[in-house]
Design a protein that fits this description.
Strand order of the largest sheet: 1-2-3
Number of strands: 6
Number of domains: 2
Strand content: 15-25%
Largest sheet: 3 strands, mixed
Number of helices: 6
CATH topology of the largest domain: GMP Synthetase, Chain A, domain 3
Radius of gyration: 18 Å
CATH class of the largest domain: Alpha Beta
Helix content: 40-55%
Distance between the termini: 40 Å
CATH architecture of the largest domain: 2-Layer Sandwich
Order of helices and strands: HHEEHHEHEHEE
CATH superfamily of the largest domain: K homology (KH) domain
Oligomer: single chain
């Protein structure tokens, strides 16, 4: 499998290095002092984490509801794709553990919505959210046999519906 990915383009480690170089340059140009670490999550996913102590000045990279972070991830992925036109693996960017905290918060929210749905017996449509946020909600409720989830609508107004099972 690894040989196949090498034949099709640059390795995951090389993609991570290109992404890190881009992010370090961006941080430098923004005069933000932060560390960028690279971690391979699986055979086709690399995560870049931007962290600083204190993390206060990193908020500008996250933006409202993570919208700036999503854009930063897309730009980073585009930079890597420009260096490897044949193939690019999944490239995730996280700032100050925002994604981890967001997934945990969405999980708690989804569990509360599930309780309300079970109590009332009525399905509930959530507000439109990103694909990553919808996935977090679906994942949080996948083990809950009392409810089912589905996504409806068209991006960017796509949303999750939680319904009694």
């Amino acid at each position: 499998m690894k040989e196949d990915s090498m034949a099709e383009g640059i390795s995951l480690a090389e993609q991570g290095a290109i992404a890190k170089e881009f992010l370090v340059g961006l941080l430098t140009s923004m005069d933000i002092k932060a560390e960028v670490s690279v971690r391979e999550l699986d055979e086709e996913t690399v995560e870049l984490s931007v962290n600083a102590t204190p993390p206060t000045e990193l908020g500008v990279l996250v933006g409202p509801r993570g919208t700036t972070l999503q854009a930063l991830q897309e730009v980073t992925r585009t930079v890597v794709q420009s260096k490897s036109p044949s193939r690019t693996d999944r490239i995730l960017v996280d700032v100050a553990q925002y994604r981890e905290r967001r997934v945990a918060a969405l999980g708690r929210f989804a569990q509360q919505v599930a309780l309300d749905v079970v109590e009332t017996g009525e399905e509930r449509a959530l507000e439109p959210m990103s694909a990553a946020d919808r996935k977090a909600v679906h994942d949080a409720l996948t083990e809950n046999e009392a409810v089912v989830t589905r996504s409806e609508g068209e991006d960017p107004r796509r949303f999750v519906v939680v319904a009694p099972a």
